[in-house]
């Protein structure tokens, strides 16, 4: 499979824009129709783009490579969903604002060890149980902001930074250069959450507050699945032969599913509906975004001036709606063009702030929408399954991203990338 350098007609971006629009507005404006027909919409629009690339451009290799990326994505997200569903963390009460803030802070640290997908799948269910007496949309969105995205910035355990590791960025380079950015971003979001959650807590009836501050009980069941988690995380670093990584992930998921006791699955309300929904939606997204990514690759070097801020906002804005892994690589390629070298050590030595800007933009901005990063929609799907009121696509942006994520992103720009 070889990737062809093609210049798709800009009209071919319309299916991607249309899919984003219907994902945003469908559940809000015509929920019943959308719930019944969204697979047809995703596969239909995806088929239009695939047909254009195969028969119109003759770029079958591009489609096959994106299909490979999709298989890797689903294998990673799906296996972590299954294995984490076999681990039950039993909690009682304790959902005070301070306890919640500490939980999110620990989750941000864990996201660097397990990756944002692993930490999200492991921690979302106990998070919902901790807050079951007064859970609101901000509990879900701040979980996505901190644990599913910003918190996992320090290590390349998962995409997009794992791709940087594969092309020569040392494993600890981002942590060594970006820890002040991580502390700033996570710290601001935790402070915002504490303020919002404290207000929510004060509004709760006294009986609820007393229940939540009762003596807590923590119990862990299904810890044998930690072995299967270790297999999945080790498999992330397997590159050859083709699809061995995905085979190991699926095998670990199967081992977990068939060895986990039924009461543990029942306690987690486990079923395959959330991962099925994510698989269908992202099949459409991966297919329709192929021309968008090709257009980006052809034009990334034209975005703004050669300044860190241009790379920060450029990679960040597109990572909000595109897969942040190829977006990251596209802007690293654009930086290579500006620098006149593809030697990664030269880029890291002379353009460290540019590389850091691309890394921060690709990771942090992924929290801006449900589709900006793989774990986001999975967290929403699990929350919806457990009948938690989550904001729709538009409300997520208007009521959560703009008032909370945007100020944090602007402060990070002012402190680290403005000059």
Any descriptors?
19 helices; globular; 419 residues; mainly alpha
In helices, the fraction of residues equals over 70%
Mean pLDDT: 87
Please give the radius of gyration in angstroms.
Answer: 21 Å
Characterize the biggest β-sheet.
2 strands, antiparallel
First-residue to last-residue Cα separation? 42 Å
Order of helices and strands: HHHEHHHHHEHHHHHHHHHHH
Spans where pLDDT lies below 50 across 5 or more residues: none
| Bulk shape | globular
Total helical elements: 19
Structural domains: how many: 1
Number of β-strand runs: 2
Beta-strand residue fraction: under 5%
Structural class: mainly alpha
Task: Determine the oligomeric state from the structure.
Answer: single chain
Largest beta sheet: strand ordering: 1-2
If you had to describe this structure to a student in words, what would you say it looks like?
This protein is mostly helical. 71% of the residues lie in helices and 1% in strands. The chain has a two-stranded antiparallel ribbon with strand order 1-2. Helix 3 crosses helix 4. The chain is globular, with a radius of gyration of 21 Å. The mean pLDDT is 87.
Summarize the structure.
This protein is mainly α and 419 residues long. It contains 19 helices and two strands. Helix 1 runs antiparallel to helix 12 and helix 4 crosses helix 7.
What are the SSEs and their pairings?
Layout: H1 14-29, H2 31-56, H3 60-84, E1 88-90, H4 97-130, H5 137-146, H6 161-166, H7 173-203, H8 206-212, E2 219-221, H9 225-235, H10 244-259, H11 262-267, H12 273-288, H13 290-299, H14 308-319, H15 324-339, H16 344-350, H17 352-364, H18 374-385, H19 393-417
Antiparallel strand pairs: 1-2
Helix pairs in contact: 1-2, 1-12, 2-12, 3-4, 3-9, 3-10, 3-12, 4-5, 4-7, 4-18, 5-7, 7-17, 7-19, 9-10, 12-18, 14-15, 14-17, 15-17
């Amino acid at each position: 499979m070889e990737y062809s350098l093609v210049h798709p007609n800009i009209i071919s971006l319309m299916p991607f824009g249309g899919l984003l629009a219907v994902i945003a507005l469908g559940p809000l404006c015509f929920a019943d129709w959308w719930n019944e027909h969204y697979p047809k919409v995703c596969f239909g629009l995806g088929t239009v783009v695939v047909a254009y690339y195969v028969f119109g451009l003759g770029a079958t290799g591009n489609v096959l490579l994106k299909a490979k990326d999709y298989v890797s994505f689903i294998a990673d997200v799906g296996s972590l969903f299954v294995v984490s569903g076999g681990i039950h963390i039993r909690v009682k009460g304790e959902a005070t604002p301070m306890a919640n803030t500490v939980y999110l802070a620990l989750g941000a640290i864990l996201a660097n060890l397990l990756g944002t997908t692993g930490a999200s799948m492991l921690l979302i269910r106990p998070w919902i149980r901790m807050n079951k007496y007064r859970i609101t949309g901000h509990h879900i969105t701040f979980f996505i902001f901190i644990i599913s995205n910003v918190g996992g910035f320090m290590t390349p355990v998962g995409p997009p930074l794992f791709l940087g590791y594969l092309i020569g960025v040392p494993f600890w380079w981002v942590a060594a250069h970006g820890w002040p950015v991580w502390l700033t971003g996570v710290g601001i979001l935790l402070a915002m959450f504490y303020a919002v959650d404290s207000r929510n807590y004060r509004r709760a009836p006294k009986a609820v507050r007393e229940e939540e501050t009762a003596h807590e009980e923590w119990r862990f069941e299904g810890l044998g699945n930690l072995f299967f988690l270790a297999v999945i995380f080790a498999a992330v670093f397997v590159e050859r032969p083709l699809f061995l990584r995905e085979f190991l992930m699926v095998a670990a998921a199967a081992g977990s599913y068939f060895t986990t006791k039924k009461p543990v699955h029942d306690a987690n309300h486990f079923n395959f509906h959330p991962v099925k929904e994510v698989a269908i939606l992202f099949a459409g997204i991966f297919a329709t975004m192929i021309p968008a990514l090709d257009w980006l690759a052809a034009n990334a070097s034209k975005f703004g001036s050669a300044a860190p801020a241009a790379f920060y906002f450029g990679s960040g804005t597109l990572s909000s709606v595109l897969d942040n892994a190829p977006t990251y690589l596209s802007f690293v390629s654009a930086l290579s063009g500006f620098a006149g070298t593809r030697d990664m050590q030269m880029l890291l030595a002379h353009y460290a702030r540019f590389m850091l800007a691309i890394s921060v933009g690709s990771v942090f901005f992924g929290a801006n929408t449900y589709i900006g990063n793989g774990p986001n929609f999975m967290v929403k799907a699990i929350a919806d399954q457990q009948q938690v009121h989550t904001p729709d696509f538009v409300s997520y942006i208007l009521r959560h991203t703009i008032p909370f994520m945007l100020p944090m992103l602007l402060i990070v720009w002012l402190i680290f990338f403005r000059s």
